[in-house]
Amino acid sequence: MKIHWIGKNNSLLLHYLAEIRDREIQKDRMRFRRNIERIGEILSYELSQKLAFRNIKVRTPLGEKETAMLSDKIVICSVLRAGLPLHLGVLNYFDSADNAFISAFRKKNPDTQSLEIQLEYLASPDLKDKVLLLVDPMLATGMSLVSVFKTLQQNGNPKEIHILVTIASEQGIRNLEEQLPAGTNLWVADIDPVLNEKAYIVPGLGDAGDLAFGPRL
Ligand code: URA
User: Please, what CATH class does the domain formed by 2-213 belong to?
Assistant: First the structure.
């Protein structure tokens, strides 16, 4: 897997990341959602440099210009509900992309006490020969992304896979490296070292779904 750590150097991205991590600024849900959306836009711009373009000529009011336009067919997939703001940010840049949604939640197996991923709802277009952008704000264990990818495979084999993440744990990245196809690209804003006993990223930012949309039962 090729890892692109976009927040490694100072840029506006770090400013938005600092705001989504800050427990005081997080109280403004609209700012939290919008900052995640902006991070999705920045990651999209970065990854666009690896996509396929076709040469074209455009007629301007004053002449003709040889330039290029995106030729890859994009499908953006996110996990409900926490993935929605990041998904929207990516869709802001890939405006004719098709979209897939899947619901996933972590459930403790009462027999083994281990966390398992439960997938329920899936709405996805045909993925054959498409560029699949898998969007997840928090890559903690990587278990849900791997389950999502395996489930999506029933809809065809994508030409390329790019994973877009706001904050990833080192363990989550290792798990993806082991379980996803070798040519996968990971575009990550920031990488944190630790997972706590509830599989939350530390220092991370807390629960991205609750911060964007409010608490649930
Ligand atoms: N999901 C979150 O919202 N936060 C984490 O730290 C891990 C998973």
Answer: alpha beta
